[in-house]
Amino acid sequence: MRIVLGIDAAWTSKEPSGVALAIETNDGWVLAAAEPSYDHFFARAAERALDVAPDEKTASAFELVEAVKMIAGRGPDLVAIDMPMALTPITGRRGADTAISKAFGARWCSAHSPSSERPGPISDRLRADFADLGYPLCIDKLITPGLIEVYPHPALVELTDEPRRLPYKLAKIRSYWPKLKPNQRRRSLIGEWDAIATALEPYLRGSDNVVSGALSDNKAKELKAREDMLDAIVCCISAIRALQGAATSYHDENSAIWVPAADPVIQARSLLPKSPYSARSEIRGELFSDQLNEGKYPNILDLSAVN
Q1: In what helix (H) or strand (E) does residue 303 lie, and over which residues does it extend?
Q2: Considering Cα of 43, then 186, then 172, then 195, what sign does the dihedral take?
């Protein structure tokens, strides 16, 4: 049994970080936990309720590993974190950022440039703390137990076989669908998540329930919490593929971003997001129907009037 921990880490102490935990079983990998913040993850480990909004705090590597032990019985084999990491203090753009941008820039997945402030000390401290616990940062070779940096955007274009970055970020929905009404944009976003869930479920059972599960409402906080859990799940799957020898390290001597390769067998079986049978296609069809009813396509023949 192997265990991986995925962290969608915020670059500042004022934003929550999504956390996911996956465990390997005889029937494949299963999602054991997915939470929208560190406090929610710790509450899950302690088997207590935490019915509040995601918190605004950082967490130590020790707290995270101890929480994994409480849920899974022992510490993780691999930790995958979506945050710039380096063997030396981060002061600006790294070689890994340049390497990933060169490899995936044409697919709209260039890396953001970190700085000494963002994530700066948060990243440096977390990397050092994990190393002290026996989880060194992996650069060109995977070590277990170990720590790897991952990046959901290129991971998703690889896992879903899409030509460019998927439009699934809440903060960017206006730019994704500028002509749609706010409620239609959110429906499009949820449809995108449903489509992503179709691709992720074969890699990690239980992802679908978290990514495309019912929302109590469509308010921004709940949507952002769902997005953070989705990214943490992608971090887990990136770690799983790395353990399976199916991930590439884009690196220099001090930093590395690991990107998973899709499983060709899973791809052959799955209805990927671009499939005409996928949730993404369905939601686009619903939006087109709404727009048609609103008279946005006056030149299209009304088939209902044809005998």
Answers
A1: none
A2: positive
